[in-house]
Amino acid sequence: MSTQAKPRQVKLRDVAQAAGVAVGTVSRVLNANPTVTEAVRRKVQAAIDDLGYEMDVVAQSLRGGTTKMVACAIRDFDIPQFATYIKEAERIFRENGYTLLLSSTTNQPDVEMALLRAFERRRVDGIMMTISDEGHAGVARALAEAGVPVLLIDRDHIGTLDRVTVDHFGGARAATQHLLGLGHRRIAMLVGDLKAFPSRSRVEGFRAACAAAGVAIDPGLLRERVLDQEDAFRETMALLSLPDAPTAFFVAAMDTLGGSLRALRALGREVGRDVALVAGSDSDLAELYSPGVTAIRWNLAEMGRHAATMLLERMRGEAPATSRALKLPTTLVIRQSCQAVTAGNRD
């Protein structure tokens, strides 16, 4: 019985011999050392291609102390808006020679702590992530013990870490002011988990706008932990069944607009005529729905670009010793989903 011989693994010295250079020169080419001339680089690359040499990334990481890998952990892969952020961040990392590893936290502290341990085992050079509960002691401890630079995505409670956030307070305040200006007084707000910065900030912005207008908030119209479209559908149905139903909805939680729209359609309520509607984050659905839905917008590509750049600077030792915080602005995109109410229906 014959067995097929295992092909010989091409070594660094084989490439050096084929290119007629020293082993150290091949190593400098592989690590993009700027001291290598273009002519030498082309000669070495030709030998690599001819021999089919593949660099041993693990061995290189053990020698150089870097894996050229960055981990990114987000709440949920199903949120389309995150794709824009990830795409831009990945582009920045790729152009700088890094590979991006993507994971989902499923919005659970236990998963977040497990991922941080897994990232440590993989010897990633840096981490960017969201966390579900900014006050969770175990997660805070795991972040502090990560051993590599960590940047928080749209989280602001842990001031010792770099972070890129969005002005959700300003966006929510502007959205609420818009509805109040149209005469709405019974405004329902659907928001996510208040343990995280975005939801907390949105509620604070909502309260600030109501307080400035002298409008009392009905606590029964504020629904928390609306985390997905099914939650939004259920809460919208419940709110519209109230004897004194809201005249406007501020669907502030990210990627939950579809659930509220489905509930309104099921009950035969027309957006822009029977009820006013504002979305907490702009999307293709908000823009293309008829009528178009007024929404809060921020630049997710810019957010990804800043986050990746800040983390790269931290990994390279180019950042200041103190942590940095960058907050991106929001704008309210006015569409046709909000109508003015008559004076008799304001209270």
Automatic annotation (TrEMBL):
<dbReference type="Pfam" id="PF00356">
    <property type="entry name" value="LacI"/>
</dbReference>
<dbReference type="InterPro" id="IPR000843">
    <property type="entry name" value="HTH_LacI"/>
</dbReference>
<dbReference type="GO" id="GO:0000976">
    <property type="term" value="F:transcription cis-regulatory region binding"/>
</dbReference>
<keyword id="KW-0804">Transcription</keyword>
<keyword id="KW-0805">Transcription regulation</keyword>
<feature type="domain" description="HTH lacI-type">
    <location>
        <begin position="10"/>
        <end position="64"/>
    </location>
</feature>
<protein>
    <submittedName>
        <fullName>LacI family transcriptional regulator</fullName>
    </submittedName>
</protein>
<keyword id="KW-0238">DNA-binding</keyword>
<dbReference type="InterPro" id="IPR046335">
    <property type="entry name" value="LacI/GalR-like_sensor"/>
</dbReference>
<dbReference type="InterPro" id="IPR028082">
    <property type="entry name" value="Peripla_BP_I"/>
</dbReference>
<dbReference type="GO" id="GO:0003700">
    <property type="term" value="F:DNA-binding transcription factor activity"/>
</dbReference>
<dbReference type="InterPro" id="IPR010982">
    <property type="entry name" value="Lambda_DNA-bd_dom_sf"/>
</dbReference>
<dbReference type="Pfam" id="PF13377">
    <property type="entry name" value="Peripla_BP_3"/>
</dbReference>
